[in-house]
Structure formats: structure tokens, C-alpha cells
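We emphasize that the prediction below concerns an isolated chain of 198 residues; any contacts that depend on oligomerization or on bound cofactors are therefore not represented. The input was used exactly as deposited, without trimming of termini.
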Amino acid sequence: MTLANRLRAALDAPHDATPVLLTGDHHDFDPDASAHQAAVLIAVTDRHDPGVLLTQRTETLRRHAGQVAFPGGRIDPEDAGPVAAALREAQEEIALPVDQVEIVGVVDTYRTVTGFHVTPVLGVVPPDLPLVPAEAEVADWFEVPLEFLLDPANHREASVEFAGRERRYYEILWNDRRIWGATAAMLVNLSRRLRWTA
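Result of the prediction step, given as a C-alpha cell string:
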């Protein structure tokens, strides 16, 4: 069975109980409040030990400077939905060829504290593509083993005071990289949804 088919089967597998998913950075959203629509690509490399492509944002960006993130961004009016937006953004940010991505499916959406309603798009890509970070947005890109990212033992819950209240979040530490906030939360959700076994 191909990696894409294994991921599809895991995504579609029935659960004994509905997984508890993280819906947003905090729980007091006004459900009627407007949010910017965005999409990210969770690109899994098709190798014996699959990995996930992540980016390190540049320090000069207005929002989330220096943070680890999936390739992605706002869904533009000309995009034909979240999948098209995620693929376009990945091509713009790390020169990931659109025709090299096998789409597995769309995963559970996540609402960020900055007002984005993010749709993660899960896809499989060939290993060792000659990716090039876009200097204006991406300082670097790297790959983290999928098994490590999806292991609940690596999902650390932490808290910080933000805007006068305690904010709880997840972080995943890998080598010298700190994956946290919305990116970590979407990985936690993916782990709970897939119940992945390598």
C-alpha cells in the first residue's frame, strides 16, 4: 500500500470514540465573527521513514516572525479553495512543484488568535526535492520525522500570559527547533485523527 493510501485509510478509519480536537488558540471566539480564510500544506515525504516539511519564517515578517510553520497562507479570491491555496503558497514559499503533490485530503480546521480560519491540506511528496526558500518569507525549511510529530509523548502542553489572561498551547521540540502554537495544535489534531502507526 502506498504512503498516500495508508494516510487516507488512517484518516478515514472509524474511531471507538470521537477524538478530542483543538478548535482554536482560545475557546471564547464569537462564532459569528468574521475570520480570514487560510490554508496550509502538511507535506509528507514519501520515504521509508516519512517526514513532514516545515518552514522557519524570517525574522522580518510582521506576524509570527521567526516561527516554525507549514507552508501556507491566506486563500485568495482567485484560488479554487483551500487545496489550491495551500499548493500555491507552498510553491511560492519553498518552490514545491504543484504537480509533485498527491493530495490525501483536507483535515480539521483551526482558528488562530490572529483571526485566521486555517484549513490544513494533507499531501504526499517525493523525498529530496530541490526546494528553495523564498527569501522574503522563509529563512529555512527542514524535515521532521512524521512518527516523531504524531507521537503524543512529544506533545508538551505549556502556558503563557497573553493579553491579561493565561493562554495554553502545545509545543513540540525537535533538535533545536521549537514547533508551537497553531502549527503544533494542527499536528496534535492530525495525530488524534490518524492514530498513526508506522
